């Protein structure tokens, strides 16, 4: 058994406890979605921090206590904010910031790519309405000035494509070394307690 960072162990426990829950209205579990997103990021040539961000971008869904159908009841769970707060102090900004921005990246892509909205799954289109809809021109300009904007867009595209039932991916155990390296780069053991 490896001598993992406390954050790495905590992530293992979160996925063991809640990873089998349904990913919103999609036909995959939270764990399947996360593993697919990480695999897609790796296959796109993303750096290690972006791969870990893709894996953990929806960790907020594993942390909150809302029902999976909250968006259908008009509730935005703000999972990206919950995830970023939880990840901060555990990981470097290269992991945390794209996670915090992945919802904004959806709003951005809807504004700058006319066909993007139609490619979103119905649950993602529903959550978009709760998240503020497509950005306006001033929001687009402000988003493009953010340091982590390119990584957030890469993560978003992986997120959108990571909804395929039965897709073959590495297991969570296969990603633990990457998670652990990033936790050691930016995490404090106090936050992981």
Write the layout of secondary structure elements.
Elements: H1 6-18, H2 30-43, H3 48-56, H4 59-63, H5 79-87, H6 93-112, H7 116-119, H8 122-130, H9 137-144, H10 149-161, H11 172-186, H12 189-192
Feature tags:
single chain, 193 residues, mainly alpha, Hypothetical protein af1432, 12 helices, globular, disordered C terminus
Characterize the structure shown.
With 193 residues, this protein is an all-alpha fold. It has one domain (6-192): Hypothetical protein af1432. It is 64% helix and 0% strand. It is built from 12 helices and no strands. It has helices at residues 6-18, 30-43, 48-56, 59-63, 79-87, 93-112, 116-119, 122-130, 137-144, 149-161, 172-186, 189-192. The two termini are 20 Å apart.
Query: What is the count of distinct domains?
Result: 1
CATH architecture: Orthogonal Bundle
The poorly predicted ranges are: 188-193
- Average pLDDT metric: 87
Q: Structural class of the helices, strands and pairings?
A: mainly alpha
Alpha plus pi helix count:
12
Beginning-to-end CA distance, first to last residue: 20 Å
Major sheet: none
Q: In percent, how helical is the residue content?
A: 55-70%
CATH topology: Hypothetical protein af1432
Order of helices and strands: HHHHHHHHHHHH
Q: Gyration radius, to the nearest Å?
A: 16 Å
Molecular shape:
globular
**What's the CATH H-level homologous superfamily?**
Hypothetical protein af1432
Number of strands: 0
Report the β-strand fraction as a percent range.
under 5%
CATH top level is Mainly Alpha
């Amino acid at each position: 058994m490896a001598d993992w960072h406390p954050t790495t162990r905590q992530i293992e426990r979160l996925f063991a406890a809640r990873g089998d829950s349904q990913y919103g209205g999609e036909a995959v579990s939270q764990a399947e979605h996360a593993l697919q997103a990480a695999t897609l990021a790796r296959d796109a040539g993303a750096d290690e921090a972006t791969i870990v961000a893709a894996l953990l971008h929806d960790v907020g869904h594993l942390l909150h206590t809302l029902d999976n159908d909250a968006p259908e009841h008009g509730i935005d769970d703000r999972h990206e904010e919950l995830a970023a707060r939880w990840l901060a102090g555990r990981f470097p900004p290269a992991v945390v910031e794209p996670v915090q921005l992945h919802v904004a990246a959806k709003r951005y892509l809807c504004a700058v790519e006319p066909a993007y909205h139609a490619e979103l799954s119905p649950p993602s289109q529903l959550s978009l309405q709760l998240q503020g809809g497509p950005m306006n021109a001033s929001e687009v300009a402000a988003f493009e000035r953010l340091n982590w904007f390119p990584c957030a867009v890469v993560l978003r595209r992986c997120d959108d494509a990571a909804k395929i039932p039965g897709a073959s991916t590495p297991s969570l155990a296969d990603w633990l070394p990457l998670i652990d390296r990033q936790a050691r780069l930016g995490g404090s053991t106090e936050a992981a307690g």
